[in-house]
Every structure is written in C-alpha cells, then in structure tokens.
Amino acid sequence: MPYLPTIGLETHVQLNTQTKIWCGCKVDSSSEPNTNICPVCMGYPGSLPVLNAEAVRKTVQTGLLLGCKIGLRSKHDRKSYFYPDMPKNYQITQFDEPLCLGGSLEIEVNGKKKVVQINRIHLEEDVGKSTHLRGASGVDYNRAGTPLMEIVTEPDLHSEDEAFAYLTALKRILEYGGVSHCNLERGNIRCDVNVSVAEEGSEVLGTKAEIKNMNTFRGVHRAAAYEIKRQIRALETGTPLIQETRRWEDDQGVTTSMRSKEDAHDYRYFPDPDLAVIRLTEAQVEAWRADLPELPEAKRKRFMSELGLPEYDAGVLVADVEVAHYFETVVAATEGNAKAASNWVMTEVMRVLSESGESASRFKISAAALGKLILMVEKKTINNSKAKEVFSVMLEEGGEPETIVKEKGWVQVSDSSALEGFVTQVIAENPSVVDDYRGGKGAALQFLMGQVMKLSRGKANPKMVLELLKEMLA
Amino acid sequence: MSILAQQNLRELQALLESGACSSRDIVTSVAEQIQTVDGDIHAYLEADTEAALVEADAADARRAQGEKGPLLGIPVAIKDLLNVKGQSCRCASKLLEGFVSPYDATSVAKLRQAGAIPFGRVNMDEFAMGASTEHSAYGVTRNPWNLEHVSGGSSGGSAAAVAAHTAIVSLGSDTGGSVRQPASFCGCVGLKPSYGRVSRYGLTAFASSLDQVGVLSKTVADAADTLSVVAGHDPRDTTSDPIGVPDYAAALGEDLKGMKIGIAEEFFGEGVDPEVAASVRKAIDHCVSLGAEPVAVQFPHLKYAVSIYYILAPAEASVNLSRFDGIRYGNRVEADDPVSMMCKTRDAHLGDEVKRRILLGTYVLSSGYYDAYYVKALKARALIKQDFDKVYEQCDVLMSPVAPTTAYKIGAGAQDPLAMYLGDICTIPSNLSGGCGLSVPCGFSQAGLPIGLQILGPAFAEERILRAGHAFEQSTDWHLKQPGSFS
Predict the structure, then answer these.
(1) What ipTM is given for this predicted complex?
(2) B322:A88 CB<8 A
(3) Nearest to A266 among B83, B318, B366 (CB)
(4) What is the pLDDT of residues B166-210, one digit of tens each?
C-alpha cells in the first residue's frame, strides 16, 4: 500500500539585532560565557522586560517577505516550564496573537516548483545554553533573551527533499532580508520537525512524531528520511505509533523517543502582564514594507532588465546575497559596465571565494577597488591579462590598482609607432610562422601576437597589435 | 522633649532646613529607636546603621551645597521585596536567604537622587502573600499598639516601624491592600498610588497587574511628599504611565468644600465589625461637617472582588515565582539533577501560604480550567472597573472601612486562610481597577486598636484622595495618638 508522509517545520531564527529582546545586553554568541547579562535577562527578582522595537521590525519584515498578514494587534504570553537554562522558568512568547499570520514560500524540488504554506511567525526569547561538564552542569546566559522568530509551516511538505528545499529557500530569504546572521554552526537557525505518515488518499494525517532541536539542514533531511521509513515500517507491520517527541541521534542515524504525549508539558499560557499589547499602524507596516530589501527573484530580473545581463549571469550572481551586493557595488564603481563587472565577479572573485570559503562581504579586494581595476581595462590603461596580474597583487598584497600599475610599469602601450617596432621585429624573427599564416594557418597569428606581447612584457594593447599584424602581413 | 525619630517628615524637613539637626542626627535617632523598641516589634529584618550614616553625611554635604528637597537626608525603611543595590532582598523568604541585590529598584533610585537614605529592610509576609506578616519566614511583626496583635500585612513591617517611630516613612507595596490594611491596623497613613503611577521596576513581583509601590507615613502630607519623589514614568517599566506627575503638596491646601463623597453600603456589609463601621461613618460625617457632600452610590459587584482577586493574583504569582529555583541566586538544596534540585529547593524553602497560592494559580491556569477560572475572572474584573466608573460619575472619592476588623490576635487567622482572604474585601477593588487609595487613622476600638478610613479615587486622582485625607486628618487628632509603650 502506498503511503504519504507529511512534514511540518517549526524553524527558530535568531534575529541579528544589536541588543536582546527585553534588555540592553549585547547579542553576541562569541563572548565569554555570562558576560552579556543583566538582572533582566537573568530573571532577577523585580526586573521587567521592555520590548526591543528592532526585533518587532525585523519579524514584521520577515512576515512581509513571506507574504504574511501582519497582526496590527499582537501580544506576548508566558509559557511555563522549568528548565535550568530558562532564567524565569517561563518563556515569553506569543501564543494566540502572533505578529505574522499566513504566508507562503516557493520551493523547487527536482525541477518541480511548489508553494509551501506558512501558518505563522511569532517573536519570542531564546533561552540560555546548558553545558555538561565533568561532574557538573554550567549554563551560559549570554544567549538568554536573544530575539527569536519562530516560523511555523502548515503540514505541507511531503518528503525529506521538500523539507530540505524549504529550509534552503527560507535561509536565502532571511539572508536577503538581513534579519539574521543565519550561521547554522552558531545555532542561528534551529528546527523542530513534525513527521507523520498516512495511507495515500487518507483524509486524516497519521500520528505525528516531533523531532526536536535540529541544527543542520542535512540533519533535518536525514532525520525526516529515517522517521518516514520508521513510521512506514510500523504501519506495514501493524505496530501502533504514539504521538511523541523524539530526538535525532546523529552518529547512529536514528531517532529515539524522548517523551510521549501523556508526559507533555502543560505550558499554562497566559498573557504577560508586564508587557503592553503591541499595536502597529498600517502606516508603520507600509513604511517597513517600503524599506524591504529586494528579494533574489526581483534582483535577478532587474539584473537582466536594467543591467542587461544574460539570464545565466543574473542567476549566478543572485544565488548568494553577499555576492549580489558585492557585484552591485562593483557595477557602481565601473560607471555601469555591468557585463565586465559580472565577468570579473563570476570568474575571478567567485573562484577565490570558493577556494577560501570566505563570504563576499569579507573579500580582500574591496568592490570599489575592483571597479577601478575594471575601469582601467575599459579605458585601455592596461590590458586584460595585465589586469589579472594586478588582481593577484591586490589579493596578495592589497593596494589600489592605479598604484600597482604605476609601480610595476604596466601601463598599456598604445603608441602605434612603438607597437610597429615590436611587430616589425617579431615578423622579422619568425619567417616560417609568417609563411604559415600567409599559407592560411589562422593559428599562426595567435603565436605572432603572443610574441609581440612577450616582447612588450605584456603591456602592448592587444587589439592594436592584432590590427597591425594583419595590416603588415596583408 | 521627644526624640527626632518621633517627628514626622515635614517636621524633620523644617529642622534640617533651619540647621537644628543634621541627617546624621536623624539616622542616629532612628537607629537608637530601633535598638530600643524593635526587639519587641520585630519590624526590621536588617538595618545597617554604619552604611546609612555614610549616606547621611553625604546628604548633609549636599544640603551644605545648597540643595533642598522633601526627602533630602531622610532615612526611608524599605519593604524587603524592593531591590536596593548591595542590600539583601529576601522577600521574607528562606529561598532568598543570602541574596544580595545587584541593582536599585527605580523607586529606590529616585529616593537616592532626592537624597533620601534607604535604611533597613522591613518585614512582610513572604513574597507579600498574607495580611498579617505572620507568613514571614523570619518571624512575625507585632503591632505597636498591642504586642499580642498582628501588624497587618503584607507591609506589616513598614506600618509597625512608622507607628513605633523606628521609621520616618517607609516604602511598601500593595497588591490587594498590603499598604492600606497594615496602615489601618497600626494607626498610620498608607497610600496606594494608581497602577502605573510608580515604576514597578525592582519591585519583586507578586501579581504584576495588581502590584504597586506604596508609602507608609505618619501624616498625609508626608505621604504626598514621598509620592512626589518616587512617582513618574519609567522606561524600564512599560506598565508605568507617561502621564505627568502633579504637585501633590499643592493639592493639600484645599479644603473639603464641595467634594462629593461616595458611600456604598456594600462596603459596610456582613463581616464588618460594628465598631469599625461606626468609626468610619463618624469620620464620613466629620468630612460632611467640613463641607463635603455625601452621595449614596452602589457597588453591586463587590461580592465578587475577593474571588476574582484570589484567581488572578495567584495565577500571576504562580508564574512570577517560578524564577525562584535556587539556580542563579538564593538558597539551594543540592540534588543529583537540576530538576530535582529545583523541586527540593522550592519544597524546602517556600512557606505554606506561598505554596498554597502557587498551587491555586497553577490550577487556574491549567489547560481545561483556564477559561472557567482565569478568563472568567478577567471578565469579572471588568465589572469591578465598571462599578467604579459609575461610582465616580456621581462622586469624587469613595469612603469606606479599610479592613472589616481591627488588628487580630497573632495566630487567630492562621487556621483559616479563607477568613483572612475575606479581610481584603474593601481594599482589593482598587487594585483590580487600577485606581488609587489612602488609609487614614479615624478612631480606635474599645480595646485600643486603631481603625482606618479608606479614601478611594479613580486612576491618577491621587491629588483628590490626598486632599480629602489631609483635610480630615488636620481637623482630627487621631494621627497624633501614640502607642502607649512607645510615646
């Protein structure tokens, strides 16, 4: 009998605000443990939360990017459970009036497009981080109070590949939106995966298992695949499935039971009396909408229509938001020579980035400097092959392209009398090649061309050399 | 001649101003009075005289520089649930034994800015849960008028200290009557400002939607002066109101002519001691003789107030108190795993009344009961507000007893928590509505125990209740009476 798996994802995204959601402490996961803390994020007696307006803006903007309806009235609630990494033993979250409702995200799996429905996005606080040391446990509260968005899909995904594609697409939107650092190693994105399996055509979903706290997309893919197989096997053998929370054991590649529904917490949600209801105006939401960054698809189309890039180039450049930003800055510095900028970014820049694994925002050559270099080629101050050498120097030693060219004496020779001298000498020194050319071997011209360049130590204007050669050999 | 500690705030301001005494003299006198009488009363959990003298000298130096102000150089006793940097803040609980606060509550910071000296931690019912201070983990505070009787609560330490002249003024907190009722029991003035008038930042939360920092003092003018210092919007408390702070001292000058006083018979119903009712009615008559106009009003939903309160307050408290788990601060009972540690710590170090309310609150918030209790109580709370709205359409202030009885004997209420809860019926409504309230001495029982008159006003109408209270007080001498053994 065929089975249909169904997956719903709850994705927790740490926002990249400067400060925490309820207090002025810095959000910085690289600090020494328990250095970015205060009475508020430590849950000291008498302390009170004050909502970070930036966190609201970023959550609403994420909602707008995902096509959500923004709740003009929204509120925070307390969710009670006892855990050492939670300073107040309740988490301030949003229960029934979240900031964003509905929404969707388009994904592509094996060439097929699909729209995944989003149920809601709410804004809550992250908790501290427990570390188990020998004979004791420690808690780092730096993370406690980091603004956290929870993005909840409808049970709309039907394979591990779809789950993976959704997360990849979501990450790209979050990066483009500039709302999160999206660093998975640092736990910026964590995911709970709800999996159930039902007989194909069934009206109701099967019994679900929730796999908690996944922090890699590959892990989600593997865990979902395992869980689907496990549940299908259970259905096939008639083993009853129970609603439960499961844990992914990455090294063994299996999920194991954490607790069943009977042991589930009663979170005792109720409205947080310390916080006022959030009231947004249409005007505010519209201002935030106007301020939204451009999404990949829109950017791709604009690169084609406004910059005249081929579809291929546009697609490559928008795949990574930082590369796209870098490229746009280069274009601006080249007086709009988009195709040249595209060639340089797609070949030289992306080659170096993929070798080093760095992000474009940290690339050693600034976009402005690369723009200048490209301009020098366009203005024929240097030729293309010299430009690549300049690029290498900039990469290794830094510096401005003009200075490097000047210091190295690489200014292109475009003076026709000097070039004539080189060409005449090369023709005289290579009689047999000249004969080959005259005999119809086109490749011979390239050889002669190379000899001229060599003689000029790479500085000759190649276009002029070619014309001169043709003229003088005619 | 009476000692400095026996003077009220206004009198001490005059003495300081004239140079007749220094802040150091006042702190010394208060410390001596604590030494003399607090062994019997037990209002103080702690009082660091040396530290207070250092601050007194600083205040004297500020005055020497030409600075003035109603609280400059005045020691203020702080209820044990308000955070004062560097002082313990145990909330009269064993669970917070050893906890030293790393920060000042906003109300305390404002006291400091004004040159007041936070001097001493005064006793209370554990986490402000109780109405007698018998639920302190550190022993009961006795009533200065009769040591066999309770001082009231939960700000019993604050009230007893002011009555016994071991404090000039004190900051307390009022969630369901915790400032007004002990003031009534101890024969001093108790002011509960409107919700949002004083920042709650640094006030250890009992029930966040009801809690408010209040003032206990010897006179209404003293309460007005202290409120003017601690009131105002605080960006750290989003429930504090941005509304401006008026000149409370200026409001005191006006008399009662033309003021409409509402009297709702519901507040004099079953359970109100005839002696108390008689004194309060006499006080209202007195106000009328001063030119006020009595207006009969209705308060039909009063009978629900206690039930509403004992659902909402424990619900909020059950979650507010979750943070006391022994992990980050306070007392801890070690165990093999963190969850057992939390359970054992809370079991060992929280008192019975606190546990009772946590259980009650946990129950009413539980899934399946939430709508029947919590949501229903919220709706009923709106009815109480509605009653007040109608009342204040007809009158300026509402007058009633503060508590149905005078201070009862220590141990008398311990067996019956429900009876103790019912004792809050007159004070709870203004917490539920967010309005303001004042308790002013208005007589004594045959047994010689003080009786208080409650004056209630709408939200942010403190000027009105202070004006009424001051006019009443200044034309009577109840506030001048001293407990026998301490005069």
Answers:
(1) 0.95
(2) yes
(3) B366
(4) 999 999 999 999 999 999 999 999 999 999 999 999 999 999 999
